[in-house]
């Protein structure tokens, strides 16, 4: 117990010190000091009021409380299970390369020289697994995370959903040129009606959606309240289910004109999948991925107040089960001789979505079927989520990195200057 | 889909017909017609409004919706996991006696002749396992329940908690003659202060607690709102955590004077356990029971808004894992050579709690350490929960019956006239 008593734990600390880091002009407790076991969140029966992380007080997504929350989401919100089946967890070969990897040095995007192990603290890592040629070569847990505990995937969830959507397209169950209105009568007459399935898969609908985490009236928070993730107040009300929220939206441009990253496209995509298959996202995920690859623990998904699963950010799973999914994708959908995902679906994802000269998407990245495609020297593509969640696949390095984190800043831009070069340095080392 | 369209599904049906049963002067859909798959609860993406079972609408504990809810509690409320560990489910020997058991005939307490299999529908059974000499001889699932799905245990949870309390007493970790106030400074100056640990274990505190399921202001609903199980309204507010609620209570009699079945005694008992061990009820349950007996699925517990586990009614688990616990108790705490629960703790439970001439408790039953003790011809003792949950141990018949149900009427008195004689007939058959 150190460092916290002088601070209001729900807000950034006021002054920079040896135990803080500055992001966007604000100071936050550093990776070691903000460790939940140091902070004592939710310790005691009941925990003292000032150590509680709760839905009602709406502090569970604040830093540093979220360092506890992201490993305990089901204790805060209703969830639906994604069953692992009866087979027991599939076996991982392992070959410990921790000493070599820990001491790996690299230069971050700001020109700072760093060591691999220290960089994990700098980026508020909760857990990391590195797989090389199908073997675990590195595995570490920090903070509130343990091997058997599911951690929030945030938008990494989207890449599970996008992979399943790409699978249904390749199988012919869904046609990517058909419109949302064709599949969902409920969205006829709404902004989504004429968007094609492919456009929502690639976040190219023209639907307007504001993302400002500091503005409680922005689209992201209105959506979150519709999901049941945020408490309502008299002033902050609005639609009470995802499907009701999606019907309220309007367009800011033509469909297909530009990439705009927005969770609502993912929810529409998954809604179409549910309608066509007659299964919820949880059921599709369980049947096509969780059970066949032998996940060792159940995963879970948030459900909205109508029981709809949230496929754009709702998954929690263990780090090892995330790594298993990464291996499945690295192996182009083949799992011990069973083609669970069509190889053509993985090839299509890796091809990237659109011209990299398109000014509407991030530099040197494209987005296809809910995956970020880098086109770097090891052909990496990634699933990314707020606070530093990441599933990185580097085919040419035969490497998968699964990583959970609880960074004070949501956007990937906060940890990317370190995490990006760190992972690339690792790929180069393993290749060499 | 039959039978429901003409009714308001949230209320009992108006007129008796071939598809209804009458209880307490009201008609309800019968066991077959109220099957959730027939009713279509929560089917569709999203389910149509009239088929939704939700927390917000407060219909999830109404009949017939609860036939779906009791197998899906985590989708409605926040929960904490009770991990099964990595060992995989422990093996059950089995010997199918279904034909013999299904056709078993018995006379219910109203003098009606019944068959075993038909009686399961009459009592709204969701699942039943019969074990004899450690082997599964009968196993059936109905309605929304499947082998791998956890079902609400309701007050059967209390018997898990009471067994652990009895264990801690036998081990000397807790002293049953010490008072609640001795262990919990927070309850000094409250109605619970001078009650002994043994008195709360046996529901003999003098604390006043009203249970009227039809009155939203009664103790049981105020407690439920404090747990976060029921929506709040402007008129229906009150304490917002279990521990806050317990501090508001008053006495109606002296401690130890009379038995009065009330969940608040269980919560105080578990709070003491948590304080003394430094572990939550979920952690104690996982460490001492769930993992050692090789449960095949994780269980889960409700948590209140402060993250406290609800030990009086909060557990959901699979039917097989409930049966495992029953076997552990039938074997007097021995699990394949490991004494997980002291045999003396089980002997003490079986001895019953107090004189059966005590007019304050039900006829021919006594209550000890949160178990109902029958003293019938096969020395049965039971864990019981609302809507027909039951774990029945008949030592002289070497029999365990684990049973989940979703009866329209909460109180055990509704299904007991059939279930009691049904289980006793089974015990006699297996003995013979």
TrEMBL record, chains A, B:
Top enzyme category: hydrolase
Keywords: Hydrolase
UniProt-listed InterPro entries: Beta-lactam-related, Beta-lactam/transpept-like, Diverse_Enzym_Activities
EC code: 3.-.-.-
Example of a GO MF term: hydrolase activity
Boundaries of every Beta-lactamase-related domain copy: 127-410
PANTHER family: BETA-LACTAMASE-RELATED (PTHR43283), BETA-LACTAMASE-RELATED DOMAIN-CONTAINING PROTEIN (PTHR43283:SF7)
Protein name listed in UniProt: Serine hydrolase domain-containing protein
Organism: Mesorhizobium calcicola
């Amino acid at each position: 117990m150190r460092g916290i008593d002088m601070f209001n734990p729900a807000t950034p600390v006021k002054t920079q010190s040896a135990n803080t880091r500055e992001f966007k002009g604000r100071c936050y407790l550093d990776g070691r000091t903000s460790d939940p076991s140091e902070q004592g969140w939710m310790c005691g029966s009941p925990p003292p009021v000032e150590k509680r992380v709760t839905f009602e007080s709406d502090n569970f997504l604040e830093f540093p409380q979220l360092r506890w929350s992201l490993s305990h989401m089901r204790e805060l919100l209703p969830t639906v299970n994604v069953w692992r089946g009866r087979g027991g967890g599939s076996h991982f070969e392992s070959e410990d390369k921790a000493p070599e990897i820990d001491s790996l040095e690299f230069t971050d995007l700001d020109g700072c020289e760093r060591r691999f192990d220290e960089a994990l603290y700098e980026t508020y890592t909760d857990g990391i697994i590195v797989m090389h040629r199908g073997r675990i070569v590195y595995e570490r847990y920090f903070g509130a995370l343990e091997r058997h505990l599911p951690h929030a995937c945030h938008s990494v969830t989207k890449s599970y959903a996008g992979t399943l959507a790409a699978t249904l397209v390749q199988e012919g169950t869904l046609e990517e040129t058909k419109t949302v209105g064709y599949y969902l009568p409920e969205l006829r007459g709404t902004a989504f009606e004429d968007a094609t399935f492919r456009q929502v898969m690639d976040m190219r609908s023209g639907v307007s959606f504001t993302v400002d985490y500091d503005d409680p009236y922005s689209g992201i928070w209105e959506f979150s309240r519709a999901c049941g993730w945020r408490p309502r107040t008299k002033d902050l009300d609005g639609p009470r289910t995802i499907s009701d929220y999606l019907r309220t939206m309007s367009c800011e441009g033509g469909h297909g004109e530009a990439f705009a990253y927005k969770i609502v496209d993912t929810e529409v995509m998954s809604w179409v999948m549910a309608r066509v298959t007659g299964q919820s996202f949880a059921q599709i995920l369980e049947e096509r991925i969780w059970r066949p690859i032998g996940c060792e623990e159940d995963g879970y998904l948030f459900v909205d107040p109508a029981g709809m699963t949230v496929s754009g950010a709702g998954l929690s799973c263990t780090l090892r089960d995330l790594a298993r999914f990464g291996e499945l994708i690295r192996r182009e959908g083949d799992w011990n001789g069973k083609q669970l995902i069509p190889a053509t679906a993985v090839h299509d994802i890796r091809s990237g979505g659109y011209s990299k000269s398109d000014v509407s998407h991030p530099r040197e990245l494209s987005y296809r079927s809910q995956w970020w495609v880098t086109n770097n020297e090891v052909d990496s593509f990634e699933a990314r989520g707020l606070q530093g969640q990441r599933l990185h696949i580097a085919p040419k390095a035969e490497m998968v990195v699964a990583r959970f984190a609880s960074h004070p800043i949501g956007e990937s831009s906060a940890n990317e200057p370190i995490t990006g070069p760190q992972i690339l340095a690792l790929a180069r080392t393993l290749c060499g």
